[in-house]
């Protein structure tokens, strides 16, 4: 089996927020801010589904924003297929797309209007875009009459499907899914997860998926990085990660792995 | 050439999106138009009001046209300004800002599409207001240089676009109150530019600011063309400063916008909704 090229590489990447520029504040301990990503280094190979698993506030979304050119790292380097996210921003942007936790749309516009906007931003012509949009929405089983209705009249699950359709329209080689199933009902969650599997099987895409849902990570990901307080505490395949803990009477879960490594619960009550 | 076509296609994304937004918010558009018309009429009726209050002989026709030009030109410029400053504000409101800013397009492309829509929208909006306002008054445009007036207005749009781009930085830097801050800029321009009165009535220190406002030259130029029937060649004294201001304001605006975007990406200000 040939080794796939590196799709995403992070070298000693750190990102803090709320840092003061003034030396006096730094010397006095104030203004150091919050370190959301702390010296992360990793490689994701082409065709992988790579999971970033961690609780709320562990730095998962910051991780995705650093990769998607929306944040500038304080230190370190991020490259997508060899392109530096800072120096070759446009080249990187052509290769990626992102589905965020909140389906970000113009709420009064319809799925068709929102997707046309997205398609044109990526240089697709009107006729080509319309043909692709109709095909993708049909595949996602979006009701025909919903295509022209305002997004605000759709359920969160349907909105999230449209968000995934928007990302697929531009045929990204690296797809960033930032908690795509958070807040969805079980049925919508299963539909979105099936879609991610289908993407892996039918598209030549690399997928980076952040989640705090251990079952989702276990079911979908080839490899998982467990993050806590901005640091990677473990990185391996789900089965290898589970070997890190031993349990009597039941097979270990990723929840057990996370608790053993960090001493914390992966989900707190506020997640629900 | 391929790159240019790509950017033009991408630029059209903003035109089409904004047309769709205006269509979807059609009820609000009617309300906004109604407000603008009543506002312009209220200003224009000051002219006969001055005559009635002062009991002096006032050239009411001249004063009506003077105020109508002020209100119409101001409406035109401020609509462009607000569409431009909303380039960030509306996307923060909708939550789409990150999606738009991670698209593989030049910021110039982004602003060109948005601006093209803003200018056309503002022209249409202003034309409707002017048509309805004109029904209420007997406007004598027999001496007016209409082409010259339109030329001054169009050239003036460019410098106002530059001012709008600079102001659009505020919602980028200040997610919570940046959009509101832009009102300060527009109100200062309204005060010093001679929209409803000659700049000469202002205190000397305020007149200094008027010299640096593009709206001053747009208003003086359109009034010279429409009220006094000044020949197009005579309008160069207004057009040249406007070209100069546009040539400075647009690139400076783009440069500052780029710096602000970088700052927002460094400090994580794109994420927060206002």
Order of SSEs of chain B: HHHHHHHHHHH
Q: Please identify the structural class of chain A as seen in this structure.
A: alpha/beta
- Rounded to the nearest angstrom, the radius of gyration of chain A is 19 Å
Q: What count of helical segments of chain B does DSSP give?
A: 11
The best one-word shape of chain B is: globular
Mean pLDDT over the full residue set of chain B: 92
Distance between the termini of chain B: 39 Å
Largest sheet of chain A: 6 strands, mixed
What is the overall pLDDT average of chain A? 86
- Under the CATH scheme, the architecture of chain A is 3-Layer(aba) Sandwich
Q: Reading side by side through the largest sheet of chain A, how are the strands ordered?
A: 6-7-8-3-9-10
Radius of gyration of chain B: 20 Å
Count of extended strands of chain B: 0
Number of strand elements of chain A: 10
Largest sheet of chain B: none
**Which chain pair shows the most residues in contact?**
A-B, 33 and 30 residues
Helix and strand composition category of chain B: mainly alpha
Description:
The complex is a heterodimer of chains A (272) and B (274). Chain A is α/β, with parallel strands linked by helices. Chain A has helices at 23-27, 60-67, 89-95, 111-121, 126-139, 156-169, 186-202, 214-220, 238-242, 254-262; strands at 6-17, 34-45, 49-53, 75-80, 83-84, 96-99, 174-178, 206-211, 223-228, 231-236. Chain A has a single domain, classed as P-loop containing nucleotide triphosphate hydrolases (Rossmann fold, 3-Layer(aba) Sandwich), CATH 3.40.50. Helix content of chain A is 36%, strand content 24%. A six-stranded mixed beta sheet of chain A has the order 6-7-8-3-9-10, sandwiched between helices. The longest helix of chain A is centred in the last third of the chain and has 17 residues, at 186-202. The mean pLDDT of chain A is 86. Helices cover 79% and strands 0% of the residues of chain B. Chain B has helices spanning 2-24, 26-44, 46-54, 60-94, 97-101, 107-136, 146-173, 178-192, 204-211, 214-226, 236-267. In chain B, helix 4 (60-94) runs antiparallel to helix 8 (178-192). The chains are: A alpha/beta (272), B mainly alpha (274). Chain A binds chain B through residues 17, 62, 65, 68-72, 90-91, 93-94, 96, 98, 100, 102, 104-109, 113, 116-118, 120-125, 150, and chain B through 6, 9-10, 12-13, 16-17, 20-21, 24-25, 94-96, 98-106, 262, 265-268, 270-271.
């Amino acid at each position: 089996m040939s080794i796939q090229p590196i799709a995403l590489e992070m070298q000693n990447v750190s990102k803090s927020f709320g840092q003061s520029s003034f030396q006096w504040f730094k010397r006095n301990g104030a203004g150091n801010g919050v370190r959301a990503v702390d010296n992360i280094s990793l490689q994701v190979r082409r065709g992988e589904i790579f999971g970033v698993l961690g609780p709320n506030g562990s730095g998962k979304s910051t991780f995705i924003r650093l990769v998607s050119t929306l944040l500038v790292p304080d230190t370190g380097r991020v490259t997508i297929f060899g392109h530096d996210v800072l120096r070759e921003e446009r080249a990187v942007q052509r290769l990626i797309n992102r589905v965020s936790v909140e389906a970000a749309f113009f709420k009064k516009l319809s799925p068709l209007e929102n997707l046309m906007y997205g398609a044109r931003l990526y240089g697709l012509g009107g006729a080509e875009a319309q043909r692709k949009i109709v095909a993708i929405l049909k595949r996602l089983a979006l009701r025909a009459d919903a295509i022209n209705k305002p997004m605000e009249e759709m359920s969160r699950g349907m909105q999230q499907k449209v968000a995934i359709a928007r990302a697929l329209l531009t045929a990204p080689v690296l797809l960033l899914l930032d908690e795509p199933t958070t807040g969805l009902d079980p049925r919508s969650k299963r539909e979105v997860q099936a879609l991610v599997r289908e993407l892996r099987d039918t598209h030549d895409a690399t997928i980076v998926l952040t989640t705090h849902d251990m079952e989702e990570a276990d079911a979908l990901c080839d490899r998982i990085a467990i993050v806590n307080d901005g640091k990677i505490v473990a990185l391996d395949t789900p089965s290898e990660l589970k070997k890190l803990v031993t349990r009597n009477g039941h097979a270990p879960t990723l929840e057990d792995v996370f608790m053993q490594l960090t001493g914390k619960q992966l989900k707190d009550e506020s997640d629900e | 050439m391929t790159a240019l076509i790509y950017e033009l296609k991408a630029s059209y994304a903003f035109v089409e999106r904004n047309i769709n937004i205006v269509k979807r918010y059609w009820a609000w558009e009617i309300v906004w138009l109604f407000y603008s018309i009543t506002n312009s009429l209220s200003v224009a009726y000051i002219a006969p009001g001055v005559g009635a209050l002062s009991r002096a002989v006032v050239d009411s026709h001249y004063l009506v046209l003077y105020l109508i030009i002020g209100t119409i030109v101001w409406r035109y410029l401020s609509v462009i300004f607000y569409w431009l400053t909303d380039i960030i504000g509306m996307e923060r409101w909708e939550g789409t800002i990150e999606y738009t800013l991670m698209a593989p397009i030049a910021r110039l492309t982004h602003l060109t599409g948005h601006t093209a829509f803003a200018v056309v929208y503002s022209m249409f909006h202003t034309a409707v207001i002017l048509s309805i306002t004109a029904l209420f008054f007997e406007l004598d445009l027999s001496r007016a240089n209409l082409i010259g007036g339109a030329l001054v207005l169009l050239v003036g749009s460019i410098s106002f676009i530059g001012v709008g781009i600079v102001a659009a930085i505020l919602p980028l830097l200040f997610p919570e109150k940046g959009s509101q801050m832009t009102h300060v800029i527009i109100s200062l321009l309204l005060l010093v530019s001679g929209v409803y009165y000659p700049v000469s009535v202002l205190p000397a220190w305020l007149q200094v600011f008027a010299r640096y406002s593009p709206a001053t030259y747009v208003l003086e130029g359109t009034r010279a063309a429409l009220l006094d029937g000044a020949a197009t060649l005579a309008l160069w004294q207004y057009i040249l400063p406007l070209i100069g201001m546009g040539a400075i304001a647009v690139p400076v605006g783009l440069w500052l916008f780029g710096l602000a975007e970088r700052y927002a990406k460094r400090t994580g200000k794109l994420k927060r909704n206002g």
